[in-house]
Design brief:
The protein has about 525 residues and is α+β, with helices and mostly antiparallel strands. The protein folds into three domains: about 110 residues, Phosphorylase Kinase, domain 1 (2-Layer Sandwich); about 130 residues, Orthogonal Bundle (Transferase(Phosphotransferase), domain 1), CATH 1.10.510; about 240 residues, PPM-type phosphatase domain (Phosphatase 2c, domain 1), CATH 3.60.40.10. It has 15 helices and 23 strands. A hairpin with a 5-residue loop joins β11 and β12. α3 runs antiparallel to α7, α5 packs antiparallel against α6 and α14 packs antiparallel against α15. The mean pLDDT is about 90.
């Protein structure tokens, strides 16, 4: 039996067929198979459904509703032996209500030792979410948290308003300070460890703890874990900031470089510069969202944008190739190199159409050379990425460059058209008339890319000029999005959701429902 709870934030996420315990056709999961709905978690909870796959963990919604259970647990005092028909706890008299929980199940049983030490510490702090229960299931650490409508930061598209960024920074750095005072050394810190509470505040949850030591020893550690946590925090929040918000971008970049020092100094800097950093801005006319998908264990997609000057802005999406080594490194190098080369070229002062198209070709070629050099120096078997870039000038002219099967679409007057043509085997077969466009989506060679970054010293780059009108929308995306959604489904979302952040969120969530077989990334630009 499943309780009929009020619809929650996590209900809007879902996990496609995995949430229904159905296989994803033609795909092997890189992570352990998720638990099916109604699977018992401990003695007093059952899984409602899978809601999220993040690196190293599954997140589930669970509830305490089962009329066949002989005993009820009181989640206030911990009494586990209330009669199944009881309406209140026989020990503390608290009401025994139907409740929902957020359950985290880690993939790696090897993390159990550090996790046990962390759970045993039972550190209490207003910024740390208290676990309601913790136990091992099939050797995998399971942590249960009360659920009251929280959202996962990892599910939030970028950009967030700067005032929210500053508030999150201050709140989370306070929690980091409490952890360091207790000698907690984190293995890593990213958006999957941050919950956004119903009141808009943030709390740290389900932390990856490396070890717990004497606080004085933590401060003397030559690896400087206290500083590393601040760097991770600033690096994480940098992904949610609009590049136009130059003050907070500079502040976070300084944090990534370690210039703000430990959490106490970071909070002091935030308080000193609060008004300058947290200035209100109008709704953004662009948004980005990148997701792990349902089958992978790491996200190899990257995206970025950069306002070059008052006239120009460049957007990039790169998809690291999953069959190659270090795809996430290849995509990150690609985005960084394209942004830097285009920025330097435009700032040199020439903005003719031929120059800008040639500049985009030069930028992709530079990214290709950089990825090949990294592959050779790191002795990786191969590194590869596909890329699509969109340069906007004066809000009237657009220039699209791509290599591989990352795509760009333009929506005008409610109608969607592709701005790119895939460099893939199935697209070549479509152009020869061997197969239809519909057959190409499910063809066994659909993942064979003929031209991509990191393949050869010479790369073919397609560039097109696009005339832009007020009201146009341009979507850049990886194949994890368009591979799950038909063009008319993409058009429907772009026509329905007027705010860019909401539009990209719904596109990615629907790609989940379509299968989520790959990493999913989207950047949406409103002209």
């Amino acid at each position: 039996m499943t309780a009929q709870f009020q619809r929650s934030n996590l209900d809007a996420i879902g996990a496609g067929s995995l949430a229904r315990a159905e296989p994803i056709r033609g795909v092997r999961l890189e992570h352990p198979w998720p638990y099916a709905p109604s699977t018992p978690l401990g003695q007093h909870l059952r899984i409602e459904r899978l809601v999220r796959v993040v690196e190293g963990r599954h997140f589930y919604l669970a509830n305490n509703v089962d009329p066949l259970w002989r005993h009820k647990k009181c989640w206030k005092c911990g009494n586990r032996y209330n009669p199944g028909t009881a309406q209140s706890c026989t020990y503390c008299n608290a009401p025994l209500l139907e409740r929902r929980f957020l359950a985290s199940v880690r993939h790696d049983p090897g993390a159990a030792d550090a996790w046990k030490r962390w759970m045993k510490l039972r550190l209490r702090h207003p910024v740390l979410v208290d676990a309601s229960a913790a136990f091992l299931r099939e050797g995998r650490p399971v942590t249960i948290y009360p659920y009251n409508g929280e959202r996962l930061l990892v599910d939030q598209p970028a950009p967030l308003p700067p005032g929210i960024i500053v508030a999150l920074l201050h709140r989370i750095s306070t929690g980091l300070g409490a952890l360091h005072d207790a000698g907690v050394n984190l293995a890593r810190l990213d958006a999957s460890h941050v919950l956004i509470m119903p009141d808009g505040s943030a709390r740290l949850s389900d932390l990856d703890v490396a070890k717990i030591v004497d606080p004085k020893a933590l401060a003397r550690d030559p690896d400087r874990p206290m500083l590393r946590d601040v760097r991770d925090l600033c690096r994480t929040m940098l992904r949610y900031v609009d590049p136009d918000d130059v003050n907070i971008v500079k502040f976070l970049e300084d944090g990534v470089q370690g210039r703000h020092g430990p959490p106490t100094r970071l909070r002091n800097a935030l308080e000193v510069h609060h008004d300058r950093l947290a200035e209100d801005v109008e709704d953004h006319d662009h948004a980005a969202y990148s997701d792990l998908g349902l089958t992978r264990v790491r996200n190899e997609d990257s995206w970025g944008w950069k306002r070059i000057d008052e006239r120009s802005i460049i957007y990039v999406v790169a998809d690291g190739m999953g069959g190659h080594e270090r795809g996430e490194v290849a995509s990150a190098i690609t985005v960084d190199k394209v942004l830097s080369v285009v920025t330097d070229g435009v700032r040199a002062g020439r903005t003719t159409a031929d120059f800008l198209k040639g500049l985009l070709v030069k930028a992709v070629e530079a990214a290709n050379a950089a990825v090949l050099a990294e592959s050779a120096s790191s002795k990786a078997r191969a590194m590869g990425a596909t890329v699509v870039a969109f340069l906007v000038v004066d809000g009237k002219s657009g220039y699209v460059a791509h290599a591989g099967d990352a795509r760009a679409y333009q929506l005008r007057g409610g109608k969607l058209r592709a701005l790119t043509t895939d460099h893939s085997m199935v697209q070549a077969m479509v152009e020869r008339g061997t197969i239809s466009q519909a057959e190409a989506r499910t063809h066994p060679k659909a993942n064979v890319i003929l031209n991509y970054i990191g393949q050869d010293p010479e790369i073919d780059v397609d560039v097109a000029e696009v005339r832009l009108l007020r009201g146009d929308r341009v979507l850049l995306c990886s194949d994890g999005l368009w591979g799950e959604l038909e063009d008319d489904e993409i058009a429907s979302h772009l026509n329905t959701w007027k705010r860019p952040r909401r539009a990209v969120q719904r596109l990615v969530n629907d790609a989940y429902q379509g299968g989520g077989k790959d990493n999913i990334s989207a950047v949406l630009v409103d002209v």
